Amino acid sequence: MRITCVNMVYELAKTDERVVFVGSDLSPGLLAGMKRDYPNRYYMEGVTEANVVGMAAGMALDGFIPYVNTIATFITRRCYEQVAVDLCLHDLPVRLIGNGGGLVYAPLGPTHQAIEDIAIMRALPNMTVVAPADAEEMRRFMAVTPDWPHPIYIRLAKGGDEVITRAEHDFAIGRAVVLREAAGGRHGAVLLVGTGVASTRAMHAAELLSADGIACHVLHLPTVKPLDVAALERLARGARLVVTVEEHTVIGGLGSAVTDALVLRMDGRVPRLRRIGIPDVFATDYGSQDSLMEAFSLQPQQIAATIRDALGLTAPSLKAYEGVSG
Amino acid sequence: MTADPVALARSPKRLPLDARSVALRRLIVDALAGGQRGHIGSSLSPLEILRVLYDDVLRHRPEEPGWLLRDRCILSKGHGCLALYAVLADKGYFPEAELKRFCLKGSMLGGHPEHSKVPGVEASTGALGHGLSIGVGMALAARMQRRASRVFVIMGDGEINEGSVWEAALCAGKHRLTTLIAIVDYNKIQSAGTTAEIQDLEPLVDKWRAFGFATAEVDGHDCGALRAVFARIPFEAERPTAIICHTVKGKGIAFAEHDPEWHHKSKVSAELARELYTALEQH
Predict the structure, then answer these.
(1) Which residue of B has its CA nearest to A89?
(2) Which one of A24, A51, A64 makes the best mutation probe of the B interface by having the most chain B beta carbons within 10 Å?
(3) In this structure, which topology does domain A170-325 adopt according to CATH?
(4) How many independent structural domains does chain B possess?
(5) CB B266: neighbour CB atoms within 10 A?
């Protein structure tokens, strides 16, 4: 989805003169076509995140729609005040494209792992937070971005991600996607809620559980903010367990957003909740994204085991990192 | 022998303020008295810079603040907003009566200026080190839209301690933004003490030159000298401009001049306000 995302900037630029690309210090040759065809709207500005965000704000104040791209940790942590003040306080249509959301950069260590990006971005007024699940969804999402009047943080995964969404899902910012709805009614099913590529893991966990006769819904929330509370509430009512799955710290991300929404909307009748994600630690190992996911019990079979455990169906056999409520 | 203009600019010997500068300072004291607080010392040093820009340099339309072809002026040292508010009110961007509601509930005029609230405020500033990058973006926007708009960014000397200022300076130099004018209100005093003591900026002109700017130094309270230096922009082809304005913190209030204690004042009593008005008349 990473390549699709930046290529879509080029596609949008062809028909919309407001579209500008701003990179920091990315791969040589990135968006070479856009650089060739629209050199006046292609900027590669070096390792100056505070400056590129402020610069994008200046362009947006004068009518442009800048798409700013660099590694997710640097576009969030490094220039947080610029994001808060220059983009969010002014409520400008700047798009922040963060490469390597979650544990993509496992071999490079914690300096490059965006484990709290969703939390700190969704805390800012006016900010929209989107994490598509795959390249096809990214394409549909990017097509609607020029007309969204607020700043957007876009969380990218590694690339080559399994495609789980379909054309009929379409894309609207703030709208959830039901990837799977348990047959035979809603009562007593487990609701798995994911965002980004974690929704794919949630889907695979649901398949494992279904094979055991455990009915599951899977709700994909590509937009973490604003959250599609209505869709969430519809499936959560009657669910015997709600499980959030995210490649992100359990503090402040999807799990927190879902918990907040259910507590506020369900007036004391909140279903049992499990929040599965990265615990409140920096990664202490290298290896691959998959090996870190396994260390944090985020592989589909581990997610399924955590859910079986929560349902009291098996003795806990795997140490799961989870935030527990309910 | 002709006097060295740089030495003159750095000299403490300065012209007395004229009637217009005193009148604008009265508006600053009006706001300070109304809100009973404000960054008065920091607002008195850039006043002539703003006055000359809005009177004689900027292409702007107070009756049409969003006019596309206007020059942009960003007060990046947002805490100096009393000066900006005084000048904007004087030019007719909003009624002068609003000044007396400075920082009060329901006022459009806060302790730092907000773009969404105050006509004529180009960017919300207050957190330091943001304005030059926004100005770079605006200058690039003008270039992309083939507008002749120029962008003036006024920064404080304490403000340019921020690393982001120098990121923006690198960027402006790279893009050869002749329409971008960085102005430093160099009053030599930041909140905690003198800049020489807290974070020495010298050699300041050399720093801007090293980042690709064409530079000038000027007495920041000498309106004639300011007009002359602004009239020469751009100083050099293919370079952004940096103008180091030697100013006096608290300028115009004799007992506040050069005194870090006057960076900000709160609990401004009616009696103190009267003393400030009196000091202005005696300047």
Answers:
(1) B124
(2) A51
(3) Rossmann fold (3.40.50)
(4) 1
(5) 9
CA distance A229 to chain B (A): 30
Between A46, A48, A58, which is nearest B137 by CB?
A58
CB contact under 8 A, A81 and B124: no
One-letter amino acid identity for A172? A
Contact A86 B164 (CB under 8 A): no
Please indicate if any CB of chain A lies within 8 Å of the CB of B140: yes
Instruction: Give residue for tokens 């402020």.
Output: A54
Nearest CA in chain B to A45: B171
Residue B64 carries which side chain, given as an amino acid letter?
E
Which one-letter amino acid corresponds to residue B228? Answer: A
In this structure, is residue B9 part of a structural domain?
Answer: no
Residue A157 near residue A196 (C-beta atoms within 8 A): yes
CATH 3.40.50.970 corresponds to the domain A2-155: yes
Q: Which two tokens stand for residue B225?
A: 């000298």
pLDDT by position in tens, chain A (length 326): 999 999 999 999 999 999 999 999 999 999 999 999 999 999 999 999 999 999 999 999 999 999 999 999 999 999 999 999 999 999 999 999 999 999 999 999 999 999 999 999 999 999 999 999 999 999 999 999 999 999 999 999 999 999 999 999 999 999 999 999 998 655 789 999 999 999 999 999 999 999 999 999 999 999 999 999 999 999 999 999 999 999 999 999 999 999 999 999 998 889 999 999 999 999 999 999 999 999 999 999 999 999 999 999 874 444 444 444 43
Output phi, psi for B67, to 5 deg.
Answer: -50, 120
Q: Which residues of chain A does CATH 3.40.50.970 include?
A: 2-155
Whether B4 is in a domain gets the answer no
CATH code of B37's domain: 3.40.50.970
Q: Contacts by A12-18 with C-beta closer than 8 Å and gap 24+?
A: A12/A142, A12/A143, A12/A145, A12/A146, A13/A37, A13/A38, A13/A41, A16/A65, A16/A146, A17/A41, A18/A63, A18/A64, A18/A65, A18/A146
Say if the Cβ atoms of A54 and B168 lie within 8 Å.
yes
B interface test, pick of A62, A70, A79, A92 with most B CB neighbours within 10 Å:
A62
Q: Is B2 on the interface with A (CB under 8 A)?
A: no
DSSP state of A102: B
B167 touches chain A (CB under 8 A): yes
In this complex, do B145 and A48 lie within 8 Å of one another by their Cβ atoms? no
Q: Are B37 and B262 contacting, i.e. CB atoms less than 8 angstroms apart?
A: no
B141: contact with A, CB 8 A cutoff: yes
Cα A55 to Cα A58: distance, rounded to the nearest angstrom: 5
Q: In what order do the strands lie in the sheet containing B214-219?
A: B72-75, B151-156, B180-186, B241-246, B214-219
| Structural domain boundaries enclosing B27 | 17-282
